[in-house]
Amino acid sequence: MKSIENAELKNKKVIIRVDYNVPLNENLEITDDNRIKESLKTINYCITHEAKIILLSHLGKVKEEKDLKTKSLRVVAKRLSELIKSPVTFIPKTRGIEVENAINNMKNGDIVMLENTRFEDLDGKKESGNNQELAKYWASLGDIFINDAFGTAHRAHASNVGIASNIKESYLGFLVLKEIENLSKVTNNPKKPFIVILGGAKVHDKIGTIENLIKKADYILVGGAMAYTFLYAKGLNIGKSLIDEDSLLFCQNLLKTTDKLILPIDHVVGESVNSKTKCVKTQLENNDMGLDIGPKTRELFKSYLKNSKTIFWNGPLGYTENKIFEEGTREIAKFISNLNTTSIVGGGDTAAVIINMGYAKKFTHISTGGGASLELIEGKELPGINI
After folding, report:
1. Do 193 and 332 share a domain, yes or no?
2. Where among 149, 172, 195 does a domain terminate?
3. Closest to 173 measured CA to CA, from 302, 83, 44, 263
4. Could you tell me if 78 and 58 lie in one domain?
5. Residue 323: C-alpha distances to residues 234, 280, 317 (Å)
6. Which of 111, 256, 349, 382 is within CB 3.0–4.6 Å of 53 for a Cys-Cys bond?
């Protein structure tokens, strides 16, 4: 797909697939609007170039009827209107006469947002299964399609691949272009020393990423719960820490073939993930649960990071859902924020944590798509982009 800057937008009905899959609290309030803010450049460009703007997005997974009450995009439309300082007409339908009338009555610069595209998944997964009847219907609503949803670029859905395959003109928005440009600093000859930080829960989810990055990285610093699968593979006692048993053989083989993996040398432990107390140990005992990297590990990681020219980080280094176990992630984020290096965060939980800690502006790039960024790093083609 070409850049949005190659499109003639004036007087055109422009369908933009945005990624407004934002977190909501129990009161259905947005707790992190970063993805909405990241879409503004593309939307404002379309307004300036006198287009009629039709926004499509999903919000969470929709599996049963009760999800319709908690996964509506109405709250997102309201927040977008506040950010863009312009009215956003929200249509609580994904198709039908109400949608068509609203679009047919649009003037240049108007914005219409349809309801959560995954509401269509209640009837045979038509959105996530790229149902062609649905894709053709959505494509018929506009003249031009712009994909600006990097977070779903690794999925072939009706609202991205489906529309692009059934409309005359398709382009990439500024958010997607920015993602590709910045992630290429990791995939295409990263400046050395190149240090990777991997955390999070399961090794299995990142096997492809590890296999690709181990060839390019000088070192991979491993934290979070996934570190304990590697430590267990080394024969160490990990107590009650989380273990990904399906990945043990992979970890054992990797440890035999490379010295690039740097594992924790001390641990912040608790009785459970909800523990209200913690202590630091060099070696875990049977009743310990490792929930954060210890102070010696933080210093060890810093020693590898301090001279880096490129850093890629995916996955928190502790159980950050409990604030008493977020210190390791916070300290490493603060350290990186003061380095003169290219620092790329691979979306997902890591992005949310770093943004909430206030370090976002000190990093080169924070991806809006966790799964998409990892698949791009793995070397896979993203169907939402490579159409």
Report:
1. yes
2. 172
3. 44
4. yes
5. 29, 16, 12
6. 111
Task: Let me know if 9 is exposed, middle or buried by CB neighbors in 10 A (0-12, 13-18, 19+).
Answer: buried
How far apart are the C-alpha atoms of 236 and 232, rounded to whole Å?
Answer: 5
Contact 160, 17 (CB under 8 A): yes
Cα–Cα dist 3/146, whole Å: 9
What percent of the chain lies above the pLDDT cut of 90?
A: 90
CA distance 319 to 316: 7
The set of catalytic residues is 35, 202, 348, 371
Hey, how many other C-beta atoms are within 10 angstroms of the C-beta on 355? 16
- For the whole model, what pTM was predicted? 0.90
Q: Is 55 inside a domain boundary? A: yes
Give me the percent of the chain exceeding a pLDDT of 70.
100
pLDDT tens profile 235-246: 999 999 999 999
Last residue of some domain: 172, 194, 221?
172
Q: Which residues contact 355 (CB under 8 A, 6 or more apart)?
A: 32, 34, 366
| DSSP-derived secondary structure for 169-198 | EEEE-HHHHHHHHHHHHHHS-PPSSEEEEE
How far is residue 308's CA from residue 326's CA, in Å, rounded to a whole number?
Answer: 23
CATH of the domain at 196: 3.40.50.1260
